[in-house]
């Protein structure tokens, strides 16, 4: 089976809705994408203004439904967008997915990333028939390593220069969850 080209559905958890990004999300997305602490380990630089955020949302929309897809993480109670979670890449067979995520600093340490990632894992295994879900993490990013381990990912080793981060290729841990 080759990767799906249609867009993905919304995913719901007890406290969150994962849905397609909208231009109406600009203010919320800017709040965390402009915060150096929230994107310390991201491969992009903090947004300097809302037009950069609008461009970012436009880019997410353009690439949606191809090999990659980003959901915004909406807090169901206050309807704020508090982060993003993504299929960063899908291999040619459509069975191996690389995932990534970012959460607003103000919503960290409350279990939201765990909740969102579990929903994505469930969706990938049950509806997209994933055989392997993987994530690359910069070794210093302890919260991300903890998150992956919390939901069952196993660290398989280090990929030397395994990810491009802003200006250079850097070593990363490779984590995976296998069916
Ligand atoms: C990686 C990242 C998403 C992890 O966020 P997080 O807040 O640590 O993860 P969660 O939302 O799942 O919260 C888990 C923590 O909340 C605590 N918690 C509090 N209330 C909770 C609840 N109701 N349910 C579950 N956990 C709860 C857990 O005990 C856990 O604490 P601990 O880390 O001290 O063990 C976040 O650090 C981030 O966005 N970083 C910047 C972007 C980034 O680095 N992305 C990854 C690139 S690879």
Reading off the top of the CATH hierarchy, the class of the domain at 11-135 is best stated as Alpha Beta
Question: What is the name of the CATH architecture of the domain at 11-135?
Answer: 3-Layer(aba) Sandwich
Query: Secondary-structure element order, as H and E?
Result: EEHHEEEHEHEE
What is the beta-strand fraction? 25-35%
- Which ligands accompany this protein? coenzyme A
Residue stretches low in confidence (pLDDT < 50, at least 5 long) are: 1-5
Calculate the mean pLDDT score and round it: 94
- Strand line-up of the largest beta sheet: 1-2-3-4-5-6-8-7
* Fraction of residues in H or I helices: 25-40%
Q: What distance separates the N and C termini?
A: 16 Å
- The CATH topology of the domain at 11-135, please? Aminopeptidase
* Total beta strands: 8
Determine Rg (CA atoms, Å).
15 Å
Number of helices: 4
Structural class call reads alpha+beta
The CATH superfamily title of the domain at 11-135? Gcn5-related N-acetyltransferase (GNAT)
What profile does the largest beta sheet have?
8 strands, mixed
Shape verdict: globular
């Amino acid at each position: 089976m080759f990767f799906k080209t249609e867009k993905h559905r919304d995913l719901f958890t007890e406290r969150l809705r994962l849905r397609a990004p909208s231009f109406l999300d600009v203010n919320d997305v800017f709040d965390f994408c402009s915060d150096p602490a929230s994107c310390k380990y991201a491969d992009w630089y903090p947004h300097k203004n809302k037009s950069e955020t609008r461009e970012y949302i436009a880019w997410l929309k353009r690439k949606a439904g191809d090999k990659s897809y980003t959901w915004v993480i909406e807090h169901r109670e206050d309807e704020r967008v508090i982060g993003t979670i993504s299929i960063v890449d899908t291999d040619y067979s459509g069975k191996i997915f690389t995932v990534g995520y970012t959460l607003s600093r103000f919503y960290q340490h409350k279990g939201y990333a765990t909740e969102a990632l579990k929903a994505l894992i469930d969706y990938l295994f049950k509806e997209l028939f994933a055989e392997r879900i993987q994530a690359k993490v910069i070794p210093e990013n302890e919260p991300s390593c903890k998150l992956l381990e919390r939901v069952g990912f196993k660290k398989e080793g280090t990929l030397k220069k395994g990810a491009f981060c802003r200006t250079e290729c850097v070593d990363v841990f490779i984590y995976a969850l296998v069916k």
